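The data are quoted verbatim for reference:
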Amino acid sequence: MAEPLTVPSLTAGTAFVLRPWELSDLPLVREASEDAYIPLITTIPSPYSDEAAQVYVRRQWEQAATGSGYPFVIARVRDRRPVGSIGLWLKDAAEGRATVGYWTAAPGRRQGATGAALRTVTAWALHELRLARLHMLIEPWNDASVRTAESAGYRREGLLRGWQRIGGVRRDMLMYSRLDDD
């Protein structure tokens, strides 16, 4: 088992902060569970229940405690309202690479939260954690996620045909990456 990790609080631009998950984030889990897509690509519970949401938050804590990764909540600075999540997953950290994943609940979209969070996590992972490569998978139709990745300096590497099962169907995924020397 890897060493336990401490999820830091990071400033993401002027309007957002990244912080560890809290049990007070259950309303964010509820919003995400009501989305048609987020529960298909994450472990967000659907249908929602307070019990299942608490299990989800505790699972985020366990990710850090077992050294699997850094799960962050994206929260607005002005009112501390959580709007989404971003994670850095370290399964391949020994090889100098990690996976990034993110989602934003509908009420938090189109505010720049995800882009600010991705730029912050990317800089932190490449410079502070000294990882050589970060990558993510995005469905080809997901224009918002593609724009977010590209705005943070990620480059499209190619199409992975039939890569992942989502909603019971094998889906193509685009591979995006960012290197420490980009």
